[in-house]
From TrEMBL:
Keywords: DNA-binding, Repressor, Transcription, Transcription regulation
Domain HTH tetR-type: 96-156
DNA-binding region in chain numbering: 119-138
Species this protein is from: Saccharopolyspora oryzae
InterPro entries tied to this protein: BetI_C, Cro/C1-type_HTH, Homeodomain-like_sf, HTH-type_TetR-like_transc_reg, HTH_TetR, Lambda_DNA-bd_dom_sf, Tet_transcr_reg_TetR-rel_C_sf
CDD domains xrefs: HTH_XRE (cd00093)
Residues annotated as domain HTH cro/C1-type: 22-66
Pfam families documented for this protein: TetR_C_6 (PF13977), TetR_N (PF00440)
PROSITE patterns: HTH_CROC1, HTH_TETR_2
Name the UniProt record assigns to this protein: TetR family transcriptional regulator C-terminal domain-containing protein
Length: 286
């Protein structure tokens, strides 16, 4: 484990050397006190999952690369499919930083206001730049929705790898995967807002259907491989893993939609309780 964490620290140092600003500015960008960043780089403190995710966002690398040394290394979560690949080649990190700033703003505005209520000029105002700059990265408004979906997929993948890479027990991992899908206030609720809008738009847009299908396959495969691993460990019942995956993901989807729609009696707490009871009743070996 120490070799792994030492390698992780070295990879963070590598991307930090390419960062166009100071180490203090880098720390501020990832929401970390500069002293804590120094301690993490020297090994007297560990990077948290949130910090690793933010480092990946800021520098254009994946958490899988930071932890395991490669984007294609098999890990706890299924990697995004070809049409939903995480990130882009950062090249000039100053350029990548601008792209990330615009994507962050577009993603947040679409999550909060709705795709059809967000104009390119709104994103430009949020970033303190011009509409022409936004169009350089996103030629059309539809591209904003496409990229927010890709961004959501990348965020989910990076967060799952960061949170779960050291969790060996499949039962614990499945419960934590469920927790990562609850539309709690903040980031997760915003992700759910994006997904609801993508579901609506993809019903009418064949091109978006392909991207949505590939993205959803990643999540489905992550649940499926966790259930199969639990069966191999002897902690889950030896029933059809695919059927369990279909049922669990559908249950998560339906409950999440009801919570966001504000249906009476549907809360995050109730959703958590129902999902945990399903896992214990239908998946765990008794």
């Amino acid at each position: 484990m120490e070799d792994t964490t030492a390698a992780l620290r070295q990879r963070v140092r590598d991307v930090l050397r390419q960062y166009p600003g100071s180490q203090r500015a880098f720390a501020e960008q990832i929401g970390l006190d500069p002293t804590k960043l120094s301690k993490s780089l020297t090994g007297t403190r560990r990077f948290t999952p949130v910090e690793l995710t933010r480092i990946g966002e800021l520098t254009g690398v994946t958490v899988n690369w930071l932890i395991n040394g490669g984007d294609d290394v098999e890990t706890v979560a299924a990697a995004p499919q070809r049409t939903a690949r995480p990130g882009r080649d950062p090249g000039d990190l100053r350029e990548a930083s601008r792209y990330q700033q615009i994507l962050d703003a577009a993603w947040r505005l679409i999550a909060e206001r709705g795709f059809h209520s967000v104009r390119v000029s709104d994103v430009a105002k949020e970033c303190g730049t011009s509409a022409a700059t936004i169009h350089y990265y996103f030629p059309g408004r539809d591209d904003l929705l496409t990229e927010t979906l890709r961004y959501s997929v990348r965020l989910a993948f990076d967060r799952q790898v960061a949170e779960l890479h050291a969790v060996e027990d499949a039962h614990e991992r499945l419960l934590r995967l469920v927790e990562l899908q609850l539309p709690t206030p903040g980031l997760l609720r915003q992700e759910w807002s994006i997904w609801l809008q993508v579901w609506t738009e993809s019903a009418l847009n064949p091109d978006l259907q392909v991207l949505h299908s590939d993205s959803y396959t990643r999540w489905h495969d992550t649940i499926g491989r966790t259930i199969r691993q639990g069966q191999e460990q002897g902690v889950f019942a030896d029933t059809d893993a695919e059927e369990l995956t279909v049922t669990l993901t559908a249950l998560i989807d339906g409950l999440g939609i009801q919570v966001l729609a504000g249906r009476p009696g549907r809360s995050v707490e109730r959703m958590r309780k129902v999902l945990r009871e399903f896992v214990e009743r239908e998946i765990v070996r008794h």
